[in-house]
Amino acid sequence: MLSCCEGEDPLIVPEVRQAPEPESAPQRVSEVQLGSREALSLGMETEVPNSLPGDDQDECLLLPGELCQHLCINTVGSYHCACFPGFSLQDDGRTCRPDNGPPAAAEESALRPEPSQVAPNTILLPRPQPNTCKDNGPCKQVCSIIGDTAMCSCFPGYAIMADGVSCEDRDECLLGAHDCSRRQFCVNTLGSFYCVNHTVLCAQGFILNVHRKCVDINECVTDLHTCSRGEHCVNTVGSFRCYKALTCQPGYTLEEGECADVDECELGTHNCQAGFTCQNTKGSFYCQARRCMEGFLQDPEGNCVDINECTSLSEPCRPGFSCINTVGSYTCQRNPLLCRRGYHASQDGTECVDVNECEAGMHHCREGQVCHNLPGSYRCDCKAGFQQDAFGRACVDVNECWTSPGRLCQHTCENTLGSYRCSCASGFQLAADGKHCKDVNECEAQRCSQECANIYGSYQCYCRQGYQLAEDGHTCTDIDECAQGAGILCAFRCINVPGSYQCACPEKGYTMMANGRSCKDLDECALGTHNCSEAETCHNIEGSFRCLLFECPPNYIRVSETKCERTTCHDFLECQSSPAHITYYQLNFQTGLLVPAHIFRISPMPAFAGDTIALTITRGNEEGYFGTRRLNAYTGVVYLQRSVREPRDFALDVEMKLWRQGSVTTFLAKMHVFFTTFAL
Question: Where found in the cell (predicted)?
Answer without folding.
Answer: Secreted, Extracellular space, Extracellular matrix
